[in-house]
Structure formats: structure tokens, C-alpha cells
């Protein structure tokens, strides 16, 4: 979800931020982490039309591509400012080119790269800024960009896998819905004319179909408008933040689904923390930044764990006490504490859980798709059988 935030900086300058966050507290925390005192916050209306959606995607700053190209130029020996100016010169998108030019101009004034990035919260996330800022302490920007590129590619890979797994079930639902609507709006009314004389001898469910056919035949425009209104109303209701949050909370309570949603959240969290630790960020600060990636259901647990870690307790023990580990993650965390290589262990935990999620998605889709096909077949077959039931009874009476 996107939020529009008005905030004031320490120098008294008021800015308007456009941030993408899970919920309002996450957006407020991200703005506070950027050094703003939040004056007001409101959720931006989602764009619904295809043209506006395409426009929004085209205006989005390509952070991953920018990082890849910048890394190549830095490896070629170009200074950072010159590399950014080079990317601005070849950029065709006016919005992206303007952002790159402002970055170069800010750095020409003597500001650091992370400070320049922080002035564009709509383009660069707090995670990206923190990664660059941590690299400035050790002068290894190229390595930091490489870590971020690998991180983003892994996150995008698991996200694409989830999206691809949902495409076929969505097509089944759409196709089944269209066939059902065709039967109810076109075929059933015509069968109703045939059965008008035998309405009293028809089964109860067949009578309901007959009444529906009469309603569609006599008030086609009204019925169509009512169906469209119901679909639009459902769409608008499902877009409401409180409704979506309630649905997510219900899914979290389902034993199998909720557990794997937690594993998916933890995998992304561990990968983020691992990248920040390898970049030189302190553990407590990395945990606080990673909290914005977690669902509110488990974010409070991380806050308690972070507080315990800041008091000197071990990370593995704090994460276990707050239900933020799995048996594999707990063992790897303990090994990382003993070896002092927590960043690498975090990455290994994330990789293990990503593979676990991929296997579960494959299993779930193989089970869910036949069940969905069977349900759609039952619905369509039931409509057809109810339409032909009087014919079957008539044939039996003739015998």
C-alpha cells in the first residue's frame, strides 16, 4: 500500500513523501527513520484502470536495473558521480532521468550518496539507503550493490514463483464463472420457455432455475446491472485496507497456510538482516529496519526480541522465545553466534526456507488445482442437470 506523508525535518523544511509500506505504522516508522517528524499521513487511492496501472508502473524507478548498471560502471573505473551522470545521459524516461540528475547534482554539492538517495523516498526504499550508508563506512559500494542485486533477485524469484502458481487457478475460476454466467443468462431463460407448461411437475431446484429464467427474460437490463453492481461492490470492499487486513488475519489462523505464510515472512526477514549485517550494520539496527518487512501479526514479537538483544541476550534465544525461528533456523543462528558469521548464516536460513516454500507451493498447487476443477465441474454440471431434469422425468413417464 502507498501512503502520502507530510513530515518536517530538523532544519524546519516540510516535505511530502510517497512511501510504499505494509500498513500505516510501517509507513510512519520508515518516515521517522529518514529523519522526519510526521505531521500527517494518509493512504493513497489505488489506481484501478489498466491505463493508470500501466502509467504507475512506467513511472516507478527501476532500482534493480539502476544498481546493475551502476555496478558495471563502477567496476569499469568510473567515479560514482560520473557514473550516475552517464546513466542520466542515456536514460529515455524523463522521470528517471530527472531523478538521476538530481542525485548527481546533490553529490556535486558535497553530500554523500546515501544522503542524496534519502531525498527521493518514492524511488529508493529505506533498506536500499541503509545498504549504501553502511557501505560508505567501509568504502565498498560495489560489494554492497552486488549484495543488494543478489538479494533483490532472490526475493523476486520467490515472488514470481508464487504469482506463477496462482495464474492457472485464477484462469480456472474466470473460465468457470464465464461458463456459469452464460448458462444462467442465456441458456436457462430459453429452457424456461419450454418448461412453462410443466412448471408444477418440475423438481424444486429446477423451479428455481425456471423463475430465474423468467426474471432474466423479463428484466434483462435490471438483472445485468444488478450483477455488475454486485461485482463492483465486492471489488471495492476487497480493496479496503481493513477488509484485506481481516482476511490476512484469517489466513494466518489457518494451520497449514498460516505457518507457511510465517515461513515466507521470516525468509525475507532473514535475508534482509543477513545483507545488512554483511554490509557492516549493527545487529540491533538491522533488526529494527527488518521489522518493517514483517506482517503486523509477528512484528510485535520482533520488537520484544530486539529489546532483549539490546539488553545483551543472545539472538538465537530471543528469537526462539518469541516464535521467530524454525528448528533449522535456530540451529544455524546458534552456529552463527559461535563462529561470528551471522550474515552468512542468515542467508543460509533464508535460502533453506525459500526452497521449503517452493516445495510447498508445488505441492499445494498440485492438490488445489484438481479440487478447483472438480468444484467448477460440479457447479456447471449441476446447472445442466437441473435444466435437463424435467426431460429425464418426461422420458421416464413415457416408458
Radius of gyration: 28 Å
Return the structural class. mainly alpha
CATH superfamily of the largest domain: Type II secretion system (T2SS), domain F
The ordered H/E elements are EEHEHHHHHHHHHHHHHHHH
- Shape annotation: elongated
- Low-confidence stretches are 46-58
The overall strand count is 3
What CATH first level of the largest domain would be assigned?
Mainly Alpha
Question: Averaged pLDDT, please?
Answer: 79
- The number of distinct helices, counting runs of at least 4 residues, comes to 17
Number of domains: 2
Instruction: Supply the CATH architecture of the largest domain.
Output: Up-down Bundle
CATH topology of the largest domain: Receptor-associated Protein
Q: How far apart lie the N and C ends?
A: 65 Å
| Strand order of the biggest β-sheet | 2-1-3
What proportion of the residues form beta strands (DSSP E)? 5-15%
Description:
The chain has about 400 residues and is mostly helical. Helix content is about 75%, strand content about 5%. It contains 17 helices and 3 strands. A 3-stranded antiparallel sheet has the order 2-1-3, with helices on one face. β1 (about 1-10) and β2 form a beta hairpin. α8 runs parallel beside α17 (about 340-399). The longest helix is centred in the last third of the chain and has 57 residues, at about 340-399. The termini are far apart. About 25% of the residues are buried. Residues about 45-60 have low confidence and may be disordered.
Write a brief structural summary.
The chain has 399 residues and is mainly alpha-helical. It has helices spanning 24-33, 50-59, 63-75, 80-90, 94-108, 113-118, 126-138, 141-194, 204-218, 220-239, 241-253, 255-278, 283-290, 296-310, 315-321, 327-339, 342-398, and strands spanning 2-8, 14-20, 37-43.
Amino acid at each position: 500500500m502507498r501512503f502520502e506523508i507530510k513530515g518536517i525535518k530538523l532544519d524546519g523544511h516540510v516535505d511530502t513523501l510517497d512511501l510504499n509500506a505494509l500498513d500505516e505504522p510501517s509507513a510512519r516508522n520508515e518516515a521517522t527513520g529518514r529523519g522526519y517528524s510526521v505531521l500527517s499521513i494518509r493512504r493513497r487511492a489505488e489506481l484501478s484502470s489498466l491505463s493508470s496501472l500501466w502509467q504507475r508502473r512506467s513511472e516507478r524507478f527501476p532500482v534493480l536495473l539502476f544498481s546493475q548498471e551502476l555496478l558495471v560502471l563502477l567496476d569499469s573505473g568510473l567515479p560514482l558521480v560520473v557514473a550516475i551522470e552517464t546513466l542520466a545521459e542515456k536514460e529515455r524516461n524523463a522521470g528517471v532521468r530527472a531523478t538521476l540528475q538530481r542525485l548527481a547534482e546533490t553529490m556535486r554539492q558535497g553530500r554523500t550518496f546515501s544522503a542524496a538517495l534519502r531525498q527521493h523516498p518514492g524511488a529508493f526504499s529505506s533498506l536500499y539507503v541503509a545498504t549504501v550508508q553502511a557501505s560508505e563506512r567501509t568504502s565498498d559500494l560495489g560489494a554492497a550493490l552486488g549484495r543488494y542485486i543478489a538479494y533483490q533477485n532472490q526475493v523476486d524469484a520467490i515472488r514470481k514463483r508464487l504469482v506463477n502458481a496462482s495464474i492457472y487457478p485464477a484462469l480456472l475460476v474466470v473460465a468457470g464463472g464465464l461458463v456459469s454466467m452464460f448458462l444462467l443468462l442465456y441458456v436457462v431463460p430459453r429452457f424456461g420457455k419450454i418448461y412453462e407448461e410443466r412448471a408444477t411437475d418440475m423438481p424444486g431446484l429446477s423451479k428455481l432455475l425456471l423463475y430465474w429464467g423468467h426474471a432474466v427474460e423479463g428484466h434483462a437490463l435490471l438483472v445485468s446491472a444488478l450483477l455488475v453492481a454486485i461485482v463492483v461492490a465486492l471489488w471495492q470492499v476487497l480493496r479496503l485496507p481493513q477488509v484485506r487486513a481481516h482476511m490476512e488475519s484469517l489466513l494466518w489462523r489457518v494451520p497449514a497456510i498460516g505457518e507457511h505464510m510465517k515461513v515466507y515472512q521470516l525468509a525475507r526477514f532473514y535475508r534482509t538482516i543477513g545483507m545488512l549485517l554483511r554490509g557492516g550494520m549493527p545487529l540491533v539496527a538491522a533488526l529494527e529496519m527488518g521489522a518493517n518487512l514483517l506482517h503486523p501479526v509477528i512484528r510485535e514479537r520482533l520488537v520484544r526480541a530486539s529489546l532483549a538483544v539490546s539488553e545483551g541476550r543472545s539472538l538465537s534465544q530471543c528469537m526462539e522465545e518469541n516464535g521467530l525461528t524454525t528448528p533449522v533456523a535456530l540451529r544455524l543462528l546458534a552456529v552463527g553466534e559461535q563462529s561470528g558469521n551471522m550474515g552468512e548464516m542468515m542467508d543460509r536460513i533464508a535460502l533453506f526456507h525459500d526452497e521449503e516454500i517452493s516445495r510447498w507451493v508445488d505441492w499445494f498447487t498440485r492438490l488445489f488445482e484438481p479440487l478447483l476443477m472438480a468444484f467448477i465441474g460440479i457447479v456447471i454440471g449441476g446447472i445442466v442437470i437441473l435444466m435437463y431434469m424435467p426431460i429425464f422425468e418426461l422420458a421416464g413417464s413415457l416408458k
